[in-house]
Design brief:
mainly alpha, single chain, 123 residues
Length: 123
């Protein structure tokens, strides 16, 4: 069941970040509360930068350990679940955050394959 490897995760990161920046405009988020639009956009931009800096197959600068990247993803997923309650998002705005939060938590907790550890004997 745990098939989202580090490599698959790396390939998912960029499209997810871009969708977080674009979908709020396509879907018309923020009609009831502008924060619903701008938090998603800011999260997408931050996720894009985090991906560029992550030590995985598609990272460019590779200064953020992969485990920390996954921990940040998990925090964002939890924050997305709580945001509609804390910020008063309703309707499509709330659903957007709940669906995205649930997807991130599903990928990072349930489907995320554990990293293989390498011993010095293999090196």
């Amino acid at each position: 069941m745990r098939f989202i490897t580090r490599t698959i995760h790396a390939y998912l990161d960029y499209p997810v970040a871009i969708s977080l920046m674009l979908l709020p405009f396509v879907l018309g988020l923020g009609a009831g509360n502008p924060l619903a639009k701008w938090i998603a956009v800011a999260t997408g931009a931050t996720a894009f930068v985090l991906t560029l800096l992550t030590d995985h197959e598609l990272g460019v600068v590779k200064v953020v350990p992969y485990w920390l990247h996954v921990a940040v993803d998990r925090l964002v997923g939890a924050a997305f679940i709580v945001a509609p309650f804390a910020l008063g998002f309703t309707g499509l705005d709330a659903a957007y955050y709940w669906v995205n939060g649930a997807a991130v938590l599903l990928v990072t907790f349930v489907l995320n394959a554990p990293e293989r550890s390498f011993s010095l004997a293999r090196a």
